[in-house]
Amino acid sequence: MKKIFAIILVSFICLQNYGQLLQASVGIGSQANRIKIYLKSDITLTPSTISTLDFNVGIVKNGSSVTPPILTIITNNIPGAVYTVAPVYSELGYWNYNIYGTSSPVTPSFIAGTEIVAMELEFTNGVPNLGDVGLVTLPDGGTTTGYAAFYCKSSTLNSDGASNLYYDRPPTTLLDNQISYNPGGTPVGTATSSVLLVGITLPVKFVGLTATKKNNTAQLNWQVANENSLTAGYDVERSLNGIDFKKVSLVAPQNNGRSSNSYTSTDDLSTVNAASIVYYRIKQTDKDGNFVYSEIKSVRLDSKAIAASIYPNPVRGKANLSIDLTESTPVTITLNDATGKQVQIVQMKGLKGQNTKEINMSSLPTGNYVLRVLTGTETKTIPVIKGN
What we know:
Number of domains: 3
Largest sheet: 8 strands, antiparallel
CATH architecture of the largest domain: Sandwich
Strand content: over 45%
Order of helices and strands: HEEEEEEEEEEEEEEEEEEEEEEEEEEE
Shape: elongated
Number of strands: 27
Mean pLDDT: 83
Distance between the termini: 33 Å
């Protein structure tokens, strides 16, 4: 990136105007495991082409060896730009996620001094127990890839790597705006600049959930990771169709100072009428109102019924279809859109017991779908929502 920086900076040095700056910041996202990147210009600007607009999300490692989570882009509000999140890597005490455009972006319309949301990002597949999250620029983009930077370049709007990269907005902490890179080419960047969220808390992760029938009760057991003092409790939710769930009990958090814990709950099945399968899920709620669901598990009351559920639902990309069979049998899985048109069909050899099949809806448009699981003369129908 240093070579790329040099070419860009030398080519545009005569165009640099320190009065026309684009700054960035970070904020809490729409869910507990999401963050938003904000942009703010000091001039009013109608859409215009930018040659480069890159970001770098950093997680402070704090000496931890925790495996970093996956970061994905949920929404992108920069017109004309297709952004990629590079594989995470470690440098200068941060887990770094370089976010760069694969085509020339166009600036949104700016009102001087008014911030806009550039994009929303989501952490999945593990959450760091230590460290704050924010935007980080390493000296000259770092030595590993050279792209660990917030960098903007156009004839009218630029980022200033020498003093004004980031701005503060609650609940962020603007640690520094140092000479991370110099738009004029010299001196070279010698310091790290960052704007970090203060104590961002990402959700509890469900490690496992089991549901088994014992006499006339359902025995539920689950394990969690990343539990903390913000955890308010666990709602045990029951459904007779695998879609509509109602709370049947509340399990309090253990509050033992450990991030990983195990829980057990028992549900009385004697009050369940006219149901062949009973479905369960756990809803973990934080004290601030944020929540996350476990996967869905089922208990069979009728030995001949098909037990099937899909998680997550709504589906953004891929989901896991769980099928519990009383005997080994061929299984046909179909997916139809709202008009009844079949958009997918999968054949599989079902084995007695629990079976899992991945359903890929990445290429399908958003909307309502119907998934059917057929085994001989038995059919299980599940409504599925494809989300953004």
